[in-house]
Amino acid sequence: MNRKSFLKKVGTGAVGLTTFQSIPFQRAKALQSPPWSSQNYAWVSNHKGTDDELRVRLELMKNAGLDGILPSSQYEKWVQLAEEFELDVHAWFITLQRSSDEPLIRKHPDWFMVNRNGESSVTFPAYVDYYKWLCPTRPEAQEYILNKVDEILKISEIKSVHLDYIRYPDVILPIQLQPGYGVVQDKEYPQYDYCFCDACRRKYQTLYGDDPILLDNPTKDDTFSQFRYNQVTHLVNQVAMRVHNQGVKLTAAVFPTPEIARSLVRQNWPDWNLDAVFPMQYNHFYHKPVRWIGQAVAEGRRELPATTEMFSGLYVPEMTPIEVSQAYEFGMENGANGICLFSDHSMTEEHWAYLSRVMQKG
């Protein structure tokens, strides 16, 4: 069923678009400039429903002004459906956090990260059971990731490979999340501090002459910090070569600012060879007002190459409709190229209405 016949079947009322013009709109501040030239996306984590039910969601996104989607699975199915609505599809790929890959875990548990206590993330995962992380230092793990990327690249319609969980486990959780996990993280504790596996220790010792687990204070050692940044950066840039050789773009979901990313998850994303970065600027996670999203964009823009696009990731479940629209404005005012919603199925009709208005500057 193509888009035209689908719309004829369900009617615009069925997709909840008829009330978009009837909801009052309040801007973050008065603006008289022409509409911003932006591209806007949504992460798609909910894949349930019939094809027609998924078409309803795609129609909402298209009519609100979105340009593409980032599904976490079923790429070929989403490509087929999204084509009807002229929406691009970017393959959202969970990279180093591999809890869903049971055959890999059973066969190669030694490929996974180890904390400073010597505990594997397979047998002693931090925080939640699914925190089982491949070590980016291990050549075998690198090759495994590259092979997974090659599988995605077989789908010619994919516009980009979108890396997520491309980092170390959180050595410190965002402040709002700590109570939910029953932790108080006033410093870096060894059970959350990765990676001290044999491969990491050998490589660091070869490069710098020291065993990192024997450092006086590994958490404060600048050389060891840079070493860990470099392991992820090297893997990302290997993926970039593979993807770019096929004429496909590489993007990544990352922590909200370069400094937060480096300090919480050892992620130095300004050094990555990306076409676009999607910082998860979830202001509520850090007890920040919505205007902080603009500050986060500005911080990232100062460190990023001018050619790398930036799309502000917004956590919709904790945002009011007006906050979503304000977040768009604050991001665009500070150098964002657009936004990415987490996720589309968290958007109410009112959320879509406010967002559509601000993107169109109606």
Task: Walk me through the structure.
The protein is built from 11 helices and 9 strands. The model is unreliable at 2-33 (pLDDT under 50). It has a 9-stranded parallel sheet. With 362 residues, the chain is α/β, with parallel strands linked by helices. Helix 10 (321-333) runs parallel beside helix 11. It has helices at 3-14, 51-64, 75-83, 102-107, 139-153, 198-208, 222-244, 258-265, 292-303, 321-333, 349-360; strands at 41-44, 68-71, 88-89, 91-94, 160-164, 249-254, 276-279, 309-315, 338-342. The protein is globular and about 60 Å long.
> How do the strands of the widest beta sheet line up side by side?
3-2-1-9-8-7-6-5-4
Estimate what percentage of residues fall within beta strands: 5-15%
The mean pLDDT is 91
Low-pLDDT segments: 2-33
Cα shape? globular
Number of strands: 9
Distance between the termini: 32 Å
Q: Work out the radius of gyration.
A: 21 Å
Succession of helices and strands: HEHEHEEHHEHHEHEHEHEH
Secondary structure category: alpha/beta
How is the topology of this model organized?
Elements: H1 3-14, E1 41-44, H2 51-64, E2 68-71, H3 75-83, E3 88-89, E4 91-94, H4 102-107, H5 139-153, E5 160-164, H6 198-208, H7 222-244, E6 249-254, H8 258-265, E7 276-279, H9 292-303, E8 309-315, H10 321-333, E9 338-342, H11 349-360
Parallel strand pairs: 1-2, 1-9, 2-3, 4-5, 5-6, 6-7, 7-8, 8-9
